[in-house]
Amino acid sequence: MSRERCRKISLASKIAIAAGAAWIALTLLGIVAYNPAPAFGGLAAVIGGIVLLGSNKTTWDQIEIALRDAEAKRNALIGSLPLRLVIDAPQTTLH
Question: Where along the chain do its domains lie?
Answer without folding.
Answer: 3-74
